[in-house]
Amino acid sequence: MNEQSVDDQPFQGRQIVSFVRRGSRLVGPRETYWQEHADDFVIDVPREHSSTSVHPDFRFDAVAEYGREAPLTIEIGSGLGEAIAARAEQQPERDFMAVEVYVPGVAGLLGRIGKAGLSNVRAVNADAIDVLGSMIPAGTVDEVWTFFADPWPKKRHHKRRLVQPEFAAIVASALRPGGTWRLATDWQEYAEQMLEVTDAAAEFENPHGGYAPRFEGRILTSFERKGMDAGREIFDIEARRR
Ligand SMILES: C[S@@+](CC[C@H](N)C(=O)[O-])C[C@H]1O[C@@H](n2cnc3c(N)ncnc32)[C@H](O)[C@@H]1O
C-alpha cells in the first residue's frame, strides 16, 4: 500500500479529527500478517469520502460476522492490538472489535490473532467516529475501550482530542443500557478532561465517583510502559451507560 494522497486526508468538515494520516505501507512480518489474515478478520467496510471513512448507510451485523450472539467489546484506537488480543484470548465467550486508523497497527493485531488462533476478534480500519456513530447499531455494545488516546499536548491541538462531549454522545449511543466505557491515560491533564466530559454527559454515571481502580482486564502495553518509564501516573476512568 502507498502513502495516502492529500485528497484522502481525514474528513475536515467534522468536529473532531483526532488523527493525522500516517503511512499505510506494510513491510516485513506485518505485510505477511495482512496477506494471511486480512480477508478473515478485517471487516471490509464501504467508504464515503476517504479511506478511513465508513459509508453512513453501512450497518454492522454482529451475529452474521461472529456467527453467534455474544457481548461485544469495541476498542477505539487499538494501536498494535496488544490489549484487545490478550483480553480476547482470556475471554473466548465474548466478541471483540478493534477500531484503528493506522494500517500497520491493524496488521500487528492480525499477527496476534493468527499466533493465538483467535476467532472472536475483528478489526476495522476506520475512524472510530464513523464506526460508533453510524456503522454500529445503537444500544448494542457491552463495552467501549479508549486506552491511551493521543493526548495532543499542545493547547492549539486540544481540539483534536477524541474525548470531548460530541464523542461521549457517540459512545453513549453505541452502548447498551448498563454498558461500560473504560478509559485510561498517562496524561494527567487529559485524564481530568476525560473525567469532566464523562461526568457532564447525562447518559453516563461514574460508579467510582472519580478515578477507577486499574481495569484488571487491561494488560500493560508497550505504550503504557513508556509512560510509566517516563515517570507518569496512569489514570483509569469507568463510565456506566444509564
Ligand atoms: C497513543 S496510541 C495508543 C494505542 C493503544 N490503545 C495502546 O494503549 O497501546 C492511540 C491510537 O489511536 C489511534 N486513533 C486516533 N484517533 C483515532 C480514530 N478517530 N479512530 C480510530 N483510531 C484512532 C491512533 O492511530 C493510535 O494508534
From TrEMBL:
<dbReference type="Pfam" id="PF02390">
    <property type="entry name" value="Methyltransf_4"/>
</dbReference>
<keyword id="KW-0808">Transferase</keyword>
<comment type="function">
    <text>Catalyzes the formation of N(7)-methylguanine at position 46 (m7G46) in tRNA.</text>
</comment>
<protein>
    <recommendedName>
        <fullName>tRNA (guanine-N(7)-)-methyltransferase</fullName>
        <ecNumber>2.1.1.33</ecNumber>
    </recommendedName>
</protein>
<keyword id="KW-0489">Methyltransferase</keyword>
<keyword id="KW-0819">tRNA processing</keyword>
<comment type="similarity">
    <text>Belongs to the class I-like SAM-binding methyltransferase superfamily. TrmB family.</text>
</comment>
<dbReference type="GO" id="GO:0043527">
    <property type="term" value="C:tRNA methyltransferase complex"/>
</dbReference>
<feature type="binding site">
    <location>
        <position position="154"/>
    </location>
    <ligand>
        <name>substrate</name>
    </ligand>
</feature>
<feature type="binding site">
    <location>
        <begin position="221"/>
        <end position="224"/>
    </location>
    <ligand>
        <name>substrate</name>
    </ligand>
</feature>
<keyword id="KW-0949">S-adenosyl-L-methionine</keyword>
<feature type="binding site">
    <location>
        <position position="127"/>
    </location>
    <ligand>
        <name>S-adenosyl-L-methionine</name>
    </ligand>
</feature>
<dbReference type="InterPro" id="IPR055361">
    <property type="entry name" value="tRNA_methyltr_TrmB_bact"/>
</dbReference>
<feature type="binding site">
    <location>
        <position position="100"/>
    </location>
    <ligand>
        <name>S-adenosyl-L-methionine</name>
    </ligand>
</feature>
<feature type="binding site">
    <location>
        <position position="75"/>
    </location>
    <ligand>
        <name>S-adenosyl-L-methionine</name>
    </ligand>
</feature>
<feature type="binding site">
    <location>
        <position position="186"/>
    </location>
    <ligand>
        <name>substrate</name>
    </ligand>
</feature>
<feature type="binding site">
    <location>
        <position position="150"/>
    </location>
    <ligand>
        <name>S-adenosyl-L-methionine</name>
    </ligand>
</feature>
<dbReference type="GO" id="GO:0008176">
    <property type="term" value="F:tRNA (guanine(46)-N7)-methyltransferase activity"/>
</dbReference>
<comment type="pathway">
    <text>tRNA modification; N(7)-methylguanine-tRNA biosynthesis.</text>
</comment>
<dbReference type="InterPro" id="IPR029063">
    <property type="entry name" value="SAM-dependent_MTases_sf"/>
</dbReference>
<dbReference type="InterPro" id="IPR003358">
    <property type="entry name" value="tRNA_(Gua-N-7)_MeTrfase_Trmb"/>
</dbReference>
